Amino acid sequence: MESEDFSAYETTWALKDVDGGTEITVRVHTEVNLPVPKSVVEKRSKKSIGEMLEALAEKILR
Question: Which of 10, 34, 37, 49, CA to CA, is 20 to 30 A from 1?
Answer without folding.
Answer: 37
